[in-house]
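We modelled the chain as a single entity of 148 amino acids. Its sequence is:
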Amino acid sequence: MKRSSAILLIIVAIVLITFGLIFLMGSQGKGTIILTGMALLAGGILLVGWAVNRLRRLAQLDPDQLATDAVELAQRLGGEVTVAQVQAELDVSGKLAAQVLEKLRSEGACYVEHREDRTMFVFKSLMPSKATKLCPYCGADGSGRRSR
């Protein structure tokens, strides 16, 4: 419903801009008609700006987009995030941030770990992996053990 009202506002704004341009073209130098045309143009431009901004915000609040953004945030932060971090970074409510992370947990993308007074959502697949250097000749790692 919110999306359709924003689209309707864009249509109304286009009509206002069109009438504003018609008034300006047909003003014949009359001040009152020029002012009316400018007011219609300004109103139309403001409506378009507000409606486009609203559509952009609705797209950001899409659950799939929020989940993708939360995973990208976890990747930037080393594979672990809290609800507060997701809330602050994605500019959403705490309830919505918790719902997104809980959805990711239920899908198996992450698991919950309680540390001191914080609840961390850990994305194991995004955790930095420890690389071990193996000897190309014998296959031993740095500790002297053979990996083969």
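As a brief sanity check on the tokenised model: The chain has a mean pLDDT of 86. The longest strand covers residues 111-115.
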